[in-house]
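Model the whole thing, not chain by chain.
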Amino acid sequence: MRQRERQLGLLYALPLSVFLGLTFLAPIVLVAGFSTMPEKVFELTHMPDFSAYRTVLAQGYWKSVAWSLVLAALATLILLVICWPLAYAMAKVFKRFTLVLTIGVVMTLFVSENIRLFGWVLTLMKGGLIEGYVRSWTGFGFDAPLYNVPVIVFGLVYVYLPFMLFPLAQGISMVPDDARQAAFDLGATRWQILKEIELPLAMPGILVGSLLTFVLAAGAMAESKLLGGRAVITIADEVQTAFTYGQNWPLGSALAMVLIAIIGTLAIWAISKADLDAMMGRKS
Amino acid sequence: MSDASPILRISALTKTFDDFTALHGVDLDVAEGEFLAIVGPSGSGKTTLIRLLVGMDDPTDGAIWLRDQRIDVIPANKRPTCMVFQSLALFPHRTVGQNIEFPLKLRGVKPAVRKERALELLDLLRLPRDYYSKRIQQCSGGEKQRVALARALAFDPEILFFDEPLSALDYRLRKTLEKELKDLHRRTGKTFIYITHSLEEAMVMSDRIAIMRAGRFEQIAPAEEIYARPVSPFVAEFMGEVNFLSLSAGTVAGAELSPAAQAALAGQSGTLVIRPESLRLAPQSADLILSGTVAAEYLLGSRVQYRIDSPAGELTVEVLREDAVAGVGAPVSLGCDISAVHAIAEAEDAAA
């Protein structure tokens, strides 16, 4: 019976597995192949020589990698802190208003990220929506709060908010009300309830939200280009440059592989650290 | 109960939700070490009452005193009481040991000390010591029950509240745990207040039973007294099957009364309460004699129950198997002694 269920399960999973294999794995294999080619070639037919990886190491690309990871980590942390209360309210307090909020947040995704970021540029730039009005009313202008690192982090937080908010709300809705009430009845303060009950029980949601935002933000470039005015260059930006202006596919591929390796390792480490079954209270 | 001042005193406690009053100014004294069961059908206000007592809700009016401290103004996490939830509310992400230690951990008790206490509590509740590191999900229903109890006892509350914790369990396990709980009450000497809709449960365990109806206490007394002398037909019916006869000015319609019964009931009006097992079939002599025909017969193990159509209304009689006489359709006479009859006066009846 068990055996049969297993076989059926594998059978049902087959179409999607094939689809994923073709659409997800194949491009990565292709990129991995290109990353081992000599620089500035456009075929996979040359002898592998790993010269592109040498360039990655020699040319100081680690700075872009570091900026991407630091920016992504900052954005993830800030999102965790600001989304927790909102997600909590969505899961436990708002009731019908949750739907309105969900639609509102999802609606922003209908407009492309670049256009929304340009909207922020128009809002924040010198002579833009804010500074322009302030100057015309008060006579005093000020420099645009653009083209710096904080505004890049702001952009990342703004763009990836839904990816933290919804998993977090899902995680919080998994915290049973009676567990919270029982902890309170047994003498726990609000902070103790948060630390001992809510955070551990909502951990699957926290983890999924953090991984999503971190991975997406680590691969982001529009925020640093548009809002940040390339105050710092992210690794994704470098990858794009290598493929386009640089006409150096092997270098771009090598950079992409480095990013995939770092983020993949981090993600697998995070998931393995967290015993999802135990957190969700399933039988082990 | 004892002469000592009560551990818990509730006075004029009222709870109103919008336009619905769930509790109508109830009063109650609970003695130290008492096992009190609060019984009522759903919607009677018993859940509202316990939520106020543990602090999960605020009363609209009235006060709750624990000895000489007023506790209704204190949040639940600062009250020296705790509750075993209907759902048990065990923490699924913690082991059995961590669940039990939880209240001690909150108080900053050292790990070694609280483990010692948790193991003692496992002993007290007759759970094996190696359950300490077991996951909650690996425990059976009865074991979870004991873990929830151990966690509540680790808190060392002045009063332990129970919100129908046995209602989700199967019959046999419930019976076992009822006895264990009674035993635990005796061994710990704590004050237990137990909410249930099952009167049977209340009778097995408690010293006193408080019967609730529509946001008020209908009767608060030991089980035997409630059974023998219910203050209203509601209580009488709640305490199991019962026959009601209407009594007006000392006469009972459809029944013959002996001189002794006439003297006892002289001038009274209201409702007569007779338990099915107090009635005898074809009595040699009795203070109250009825007659009718057998409408149905039910075998209840060692006893037999009859439903009888009589001029006084439909009656239920329960006799031992060896005393069974009639079959369905047979005419029978029934009787009982005046000592087994309880009269509820008209005024109380009307109030109910």
